[in-house]
From TrEMBL:
Residues 254-359 form the Moybdenum cofactor oxidoreductase dimerisation domain. SUPFAM superfamilies: E set domains, Oxidoreductase molybdopterin-binding domain. This is Sulfite oxidase. Residues 41-217 form the Oxidoreductase molybdopterin-binding domain. InterPro entries: Ig_E-set, MoCF_OxRdtse_dimer, Mopterin_OxRdtase_euk, OxRdtase_Mopterin-bd_dom, OxRdtase_Mopterin-bd_sf. It comes from the Bacteria.
């Protein structure tokens, strides 16, 4: 379905929610369309690019509207390599601690990287008279109505105006050199590099300037880290920590733990990513539950908005070896060891150490 590989792990068909296998995700620094994870809260709309229009409103009664042709003609095309990562990435690790009803058990593959092409949102906003350094927020709304929200409503989110006016935030119509696929928001989506995937609104058709963050359910109620003892059903608007920047995170993508490893050492590898304003500075792997650490090699950085691939050769001196991996950022902050200390009622931001158990022939 949706041009995804046959080995894609489909959590739900309606709405469509699916992630690649770790092996598929490891294949490229950029993630091919048929591998890229897909996260939806409602039906995937079918929009004719020729009929699509984007309305930009100042929140005080003034608005302008753009067609796709106008966007392409009036503004310079830019391209940004950026990793999208769902706030629910690695939720399965939290569910292993305690159940999280009504949410999908994403593994470490609810994240993918693409080269996005389009226009800088800042250029579009400037053309509408928005000035740099004005305080405020920018709301994005798509046409897909989600009945997961209370009340059912179109999917929306917001970011601070400063991030909207940054060089990296874009309205994308291209992904890895191809027209943006329908399932990923075609004809046009927002891409907010360094922020949780939820802010990168697909099929965007309304942008509104605001004094405060969006009242949309997906901004005000969902995508918030509630205290571990909170009842998610009675959580109100504004409760919990609102997520924007992606937390420092990393995990294994290979080798496949269901295969038997021959030899007394093995090369392991995966991805590491840090959100807005931070960078991955180091990745380490341990074979003794964190007592000692082996420095992993980090692949060369391909820009500050993209993940880093890493790999390390580790000894395998027992029939079963449990590995863990952690990253560090530029402030020398690192990741917590266990998912238990991070458990939260909606299951967001599991950035505990990645873990992988490997087997040798008996
Ligand atoms: N935009 C709309 N209109 N509807 C959605 O359900 N899901 C968001 C975001 N944008 C969503 C959306 C979430 S939670 C994520 S993680 C990303 O899209 C996923 O983007 P992808 O499906 O292209 O991987
Ligand atoms: Mo997400």
């Amino acid at each position: 379905m949706w041009n995804k590989r046959a080995d894609t792990v489909v959590h739900e068909t309606e709405p469509y929610n699916a992630e690649p296998t770790p092996t598929a995700l490891a294949e490229g620094f950029l993630t091919d369309e048929d591998v890229f994870y897909s996260r939806n809260h409602g039906p995937i709309p079918d929009i004719d690019p020729a009929g699509w229009r984007l309305t930009v409103a100042d929140g005080h009664g003034m608005s302008r509207s753009f067609s796709l042709v106008e966007l392409r003609e009036e503004f310079d095309e830019i391209s940004v390599v950026a990793t999208l990562q769902c706030a629910g990435n690695r939720r399965a690790g939290l569910m292993a601690v305690r159940e999280i009803p009504g949410e999908d058990p994403w593994t470490q593959c609810a994240t993918s990287t693409a080269r996005w092409n389009g226009v800088a949102l800042a250029d579009l906003l400037r053309s509408c008279g928005v000035e740099e350094n004005t305080p405020g927020h920018v709301e994005f709304v798509g046409p897909d109505v989600s009945d997961l929200a209370t009340p059912p409503q179109r999917y929306g989110s917001s970011i601070e105006l400063t991030k909207a006016m940054s060089a990296e935030t874009l309205l994308a119509w291209g992904m890895n050199g191809q027209p943006l696929p329908r399932v990923h928001g075609g004809p046009v989506r927002v891409v907010v590099p360094g922020y949780i995937g939820a802010r990168s609104v697909k099929w965007v058709d309304e942008i509104t300037l605001r004094d405060s963050p969006s009242d949309n359910w997906f901004q005000r109620v969902a995508y918030r880290v509630l205290p571990s003892d909170a009842d998610p059903d009675s959580a109100g608007p504004g409760d919990g920590i609102s997520l924007s920047s992606v937390a420092l995170n990393c995990d294994f993508l290979h080798p496949d733990p269901t295969t038997t490893i021959h030899g007394d050492e093995v090369r392991v590898g995966g991805y590491a990513f840090a959100g807005d304003d931070r960078a991955v500075s180091r990745v380490q792997v341990s074979t003794d539950d964190g007592a000692t650490w082996i420095e992993a090699e980090l692949a060369e950085s391909q820009g500050r908005w993209a993940w880093r691939h890493w790999s390390a050769v580790v000894p395998l001196d027992a029939p079963e070896v449990e590995l863990c991996v952690r990253a560090w950022d530029g402030a020398a902050a690192t990741q917590p060891a266990s998912a238990a200390e991070l458990w939260n009622p909606k299951g967001y931001v599991n950035n505990s150490w990645g873990r992988l158990t490997l087997h040798r022939p008996p």
